[in-house]
Amino acid sequence: MSKNAKVLKKQDIPSLAEYIASDKCKNIVLMLGAGVSTAAGIPDFRSPETGLYANLARLNLPYPEAVFEINFFRKNPVPFYTLAQELYPGKFRPTITHSFIRLLAKHGLLHTCFTQNIDVLERIAGVPDDKIIEAHGSFASQRCIDCHKPFDDDEMKRKILAKETPKCGKCGGLVKPDIVFFGESLPDEFIKAIPNVAKADLLIVMGTSLTVQPFAGLAERAGASCPRVLINLDRVGSIGRRPNDLVLLGKCDEVVSKLCRELGWEKELMDLWAKTEIKTKSPVEGEEDEGEDEGEVKGEDEEVKVKEPATAEDLVGAITDAIGRQLKLDESESKTDQDKDEAAEEEAAKGTEKDESSKAGGKL
Ligand code: OAD
Ligand code: ZN
Question: EC top class, in one word (predicted)?
Fold first, then answer.
């Protein structure tokens, strides 16, 4: 087929639905970003008001992205761990869009779901594991950043929820979830799955600013006649430049709901989403068990605790304040240490033996 031949009759949702329902569309590849999870109450990174980076910008960090930067983490892992505690999986409900992805799999149409998200909401929504490529890793496993020794899952969960910094039992190095930080390479599974994009009959890009490479570059690997659909609040990347591109501006949940209505899948979609419902416990009960089973990724019929505050806007404020407090704490601790060291030096100069405690409690 020539690359200019029309695959979708029109550049609209009914034509997209008609194509998905046809036997020409067998393999759908998805590319996801943080915008897919904002309706779950998780902030994205680059939205001007509600994004994590805009909010972190008011803190005393060298730059907002430093929280996810490996060299900064080596020097100060506390901001990352503060964020990790707030975002730890198990507290958030998948969105309608996550259930849509599961529905595509149920209809045998999902080839690969590439996600940049570390929230594992695709898994919680019931998308089969073998269809998901977590390009920027996830909280599912962790290891020492120096000797690379894996670290126990339960111990990690306990440490993160207790806001403690986990350390390697072998070499004392910092332990980090297998989330890809700036300055690190992407997982092998991602590299191996890159050719899958060329097999797509349809590429759907949702909720991403397409600013981070190499992920963003996947969109260029779709075949010349493969329709590329962007579902996002704003226009991003190069989608819209090819004749078969379709840009659907709006909230992911609203756009996929319209699409499912056209496909006659609306009830199925809402039934699947209903299964992801979080059964809220009373706050007292929640308090009691805290740190025990919070954070665990649960199956759809199991009970998970709801995380308050519920909106991405509220949460980004809470995260920013918590990191801000930690940074201030850090600063004052290091000042106290400095004072202690100076005092100890004076003592030493006076011929007194230097006490070990003057060095204790210092920064890493
Ligand atoms: P961004 O925050 O860069 O982009 C999110 C996009 O989703 C923006 O274009 C928003 O307008 C849009 N959006 C937000 N809510 C939406 C909604 N309800 N419906 C539709 N669109 C919505 O997030 P990512 O593109 O995922 O990497 O960011 C990519 C990477 O940058 C992340 O994986 C992370 C970050 O630094 C690492 O930490 C390595
Ligand atoms: Zn180690």
Answer: transferase
Query: pLDDT digits over 168-210, tens only?
Result: 999 999 999 999 999 899 999 999 999 999 999 999 999 999 9
Residues lining ligand 1, judged by CB closer than 6 Å? Answer: 33-35, 38-39, 44-47, 51, 68, 116, 136, 180, 182, 207-209, 211-212, 232-234, 236, 251-252
Q: Which long-range contacts (CB under 8 A, 24 or more apart) does 358-363 make?
A: 361/333, 361/336, 361/337, 362/333, 362/334, 362/337, 363/76, 363/330, 363/333, 363/334, 363/337
> What separation in angstroms does the CA of 3 have from each of 48, 201, 216, 224, 272?
36, 13, 21, 5, 36
Q: What is the DSSP string of 88-153?
A: -TTS-PPPHHHHHHHHHHHTT-EEEEEE---S-HHHHTT--GGGEEETTEEEEEEEETTT--B--H
Q: Which atom of ligand 1 is nearest to the CA of 51?
A: 2
Per-residue pLDDT at 297 exceeds 50: no
Contacts of 290 (CB under 8 A, 6+ apart): 161
Tell me the per-residue pLDDT of 136-168, one tens digit each, with 9 for 90 and over.
999 989 999 999 999 999 999 999 998 889 999
Q: How many residues does the chain have?
A: 364
Positive or negative torsion for Cα 146, 62, 137, 277 = positive
CA of 114 to the centre of ligand 1 (A): 14
Q: Residue 337 has what pLDDT? A: 55
Q: Which ligand is nearest to the CA of 174?
A: 2
| CB contact at 8 A, 200 and 224 | no
Q: Cα–Cα distance between 297 and 247 in angstroms, integer?
A: 33
Q: pLDDT band at 356, cuts 50/70/90?
A: very low
**Structural domains of the chain ordered from first start:** 13-279 (3.40.50.1220)
SS3 breakdown of the chain: % helix, strand, coil, rounded to 5? 45, 15, 45
Note residues around ion ligand 2 (Cβ under 5 angstroms): 144, 146-147, 149, 168, 170-171, 173
pTM of the model: 0.85
Ligand 1 atom nearest to CA at 210: 25
